[in-house]
Amino acid sequence: MGTTQLESVPEPKYWHLKTVLSEALDHDFAVGEILPNERELAARFGVARATLRQALEQLELEGRLQRRRGVGTTVAPPRVGVAVGSARHSWPGESADGWEAVDAAEALPTAAVLKLLAAGSGSAASGSASASAVFAADQPVHTVRRTRVTEGQVVAAELLYVPAASVPGLSAIDAPAGPARARAVLRELQRLALDGQDRSVELGSARADDAKELDRLPGAPVLLVTTRYFTAGGTAAVSVATYRADTCRLTFGDEGVEITETRVAS
């Protein structure tokens, strides 16, 4: 039998360079050491800077390198998995889930937020209201911001969208702003009976706000985890969590796909 088209395609230059760079990281550089700039590295390995960038991006995605604002590209520490997947049937903020409340704001939803809330509403328990009835553009939505910190480093940022109808008992007077306001929204949400949730994971690029929160460069690879929380009335809230792809990985277990956070071995 002849070779397939894929088998006859030569290895891309950047992929070969990635292998060479990976070996250099193992022998010539220490953990935390700052790499030379792109011009020096390109000259050292005799490649074009565009090829070098592709190789560096791949190594960053694999967790071998970290690129930080104002610092440069450094050698990443070895990674040890620490499970951070939440219980399958718990509200955000329950059971010491490891997230820290940052802030909460109330505003009319954008088209993108309405789309997030409406998607998956049909997956809720039977008898749920239609998306158009529950998620009207003139009804406010609470946006709760939370972060996940491990050993002093932010590894994930979350935006939790909670329609005002899901937390009717919330009072603006008790906690007008800040972390206290975020915790108040979560407490009210937890008063509802949770019927279930679904979760999806995809690879993405860090938006400017996410990159700043995660101390990454805009466009850095991230894992986007979208979780929808259902009650008998339909979708009660939607979480969009952005995990650093260089410090987190996907794991597969009996309960499906989970995010596994990574940290420096002690």
Q: If you had to describe this structure to a student in words, what would you say it looks like?
A:
The chain is α+β, with helices and mostly antiparallel strands. Helix content is 27%, strand content 33%. It has eight helices and eleven strands. Helix 2 (13-27) packs across helix 4 and helix 3 crosses helix 4. The termini are far apart. The model is unreliable at 1-6 and 123-133 (pLDDT under 50).
SSE map:
Blueprint: H1 5-8, H2 13-27, H3 38-45, H4 49-61, E1 65-68, E2 72-75, E3 80-83, E4 99-107, H5 111-118, H6 131-134, E5 141-150, E6 153-163, H7 178-189, E7 196-205, H8 208-214, E8 221-231, E9 234-244, E10 248-253, E11 256-263
Antiparallel strand pairs: 1-2, 3-11, 4-5, 5-6, 6-9, 7-8, 8-9, 10-11
Helix pairs in contact: 2-4, 3-4
Overall morphology: elongated
Chain-averaged pLDDT: 80
End-to-end distance: 52 Å
The strand order across the widest sheet is 4-5-6-9-8-7
Number of strands: 11
Rg (C-alpha, Å): 22 Å
Order of helices and strands: HHHHEEEEHHEEHEHEEEE
Query: Helical amount among residues, as a percent range?
Result: 25-40%
Q: Low-confidence spans: pLDDT under 50, at least 5 residues? A: 1-6, 123-133
Number of helices: 8
